[in-house]
Amino acid sequence: MVIKVFLASSSGSTAIKKKQQDVLGFLEALKVDYAQLDIACNEDNRMWMRENVPVEKKPTNGIPLPPQIFNEESYCGDYETFFDAKEDNAVYAFLGLPPPPGSKKAPVKEEEAQEEVEDEEAKGEDDQPVSEEEEELRQLEEEEEAPEVTEQEEEDE
User: Is beta strand 68-71 parallel, antiparallel or unpaired with respect to 3-7?
Assistant: First the structure.
């Protein structure tokens, strides 16, 4: 799977140039394989990009501006949607790529799986689902049962 980034090498707009550099720099930092496809020098690239950006994603004038991002033939989005994904730490999902091994997404899934197991075990105790409020109350009760260390005890140590 190759990510295709459609850009304009000879754009007169500094805003477009900055957006293109931001996308390419971030993809390089993530070590994502991508191909730059120039729409300024290659009419075929320009036509392909314009035809494959979904109608609902095109601006009101109907002409999408670079950068436009695709995963092979699948449209990922423009700069704004890329930026939103970057802010949400969801660039791999945005690009339609699996996160690399050791990324932060994997441990979160393991924690969620563990929480589901604990929830199932809690349900099994009395066959009643545990609400979030009940779970918070149970955690607070456990914290209250734990011995507290006072400031005086800390100073004594």
Answer: antiparallel
Distances in whole angstroms, Cα of residue 43 to Cα of each of 6, 50, 59, 74, 136: 12, 11, 20, 20, 60
- pTM for the model stands at 0.65
Task: Check: CB of residue 20 under 8 Å from CB of residue 37.
Answer: no
pLDDT of the chain, 157 residues: tens digit per residue: 799 999 999 988 999 999 999 999 999 999 999 999 999 999 999 999 999 999 999 988 889 999 999 999 999 999 999 999 999 999 999 999 999 887 765 444 444 545 554 555 555 555 555 566 666 666 666 655 555 555 555 555 5
